[in-house]
Amino acid sequence: QTYSISPDSNYHIKDVQVDNVSVGPVAEYMFSNVMSSHEINATFEADQTIITRTITASCEANGSILPTGLTNVTSGSDFTFNIAPITNYHIKDVQVDGVSVGAVSAYTFSNVTTDHTIMAFFDINTYLINASSAPNGSISPTGSVPVIHGDSQTFTITPDVGYQIGQLTVDGGIVAPTTSYSFSNVTSDHSISVNFV
């Protein structure tokens, strides 16, 4: 009866024992003229030079990528990186080997066979203030006005000749008429609208 011994990838045969006696790291063993029961055991160990690849991870300020720096990955395996912004920031883009993969919060390298790079970019949150006015006057700026987190934005309201501010509405609530209205320390979306009489 012949037995074949095969190691997994990146491993080699350490020893083969027959009836508790070593016969060396053989890939095949044959029992000849069998007259009784026998036992055969094979042991394996990792190659001293398992092939590894390097993934270099980095990011801009205001966020993190984990793990960061150089990571050695066994060739053929998978590896995942997690990306997270700090408070009041968001992921702007993630680039793998210099090519954008979008604003993802995690990225997995599958079946790694070459070296790679991954870099994350972050940007501060931006909010919109929707400003509108009825006829017979104007509000400036108008439309969807972007405001960076924590900044302020002032709107100037100007009635046409012969008109005055009728009703000024901010975030759905009526406020006292004024020709200048400011949103301070903006941390969310807002709206402002005005009509004239």
Question: Mean pLDDT, as a whole number?
Answer: 95
Strand order of the largest sheet: 8-6-13-10-11
Largest sheet: 5 strands, mixed
Computed over alpha carbons, the radius of gyration is: 35 Å
**What structural category do the secondary elements indicate?**
mainly beta
Poorly predicted runs of 5 or more residues: none
Count the E strands: 21
- What does the oligomeric state look like here? single chain
Please provide the ordered H/E string of secondary-structure elements.
EEEEEEEEEEEEEEEEEEEEE
How far apart are the termini?
Answer: 105 Å
Proportion of β residues? over 45%
Helix percentage range: under 10%
Q: Which of globular, elongated, flat, extended, rod-shaped describes the shape?
A: rod-shaped
Helix run count: 0
Describe the structure.
- This protein is mostly beta strands.
- 0% of the residues lie in helices and 61% in strands.
- It has no helices and 21 strands.
- It has strands at residues 2-4, 11-18, 21-24, 28-30, 40-46, 52-59, 63-66, 69-74, 79-85, 89-96, 99-102, 106-109, 116-124, 126-133, 137-140, 143-148, 153-159, 165-170, 173-175, 180-183, 190-196.
- It has a 5-stranded mixed sheet, with no helix packed on it. Strands 16-14-21-18-19 form a 5-stranded mixed sheet, with no helix packed on it. Strands 3-2-5 form a 3-stranded antiparallel sheet, with no helix packed on it.
- A hairpin with a 2-residue loop joins strand 18 and strand 19.
- The mean pLDDT is 95.
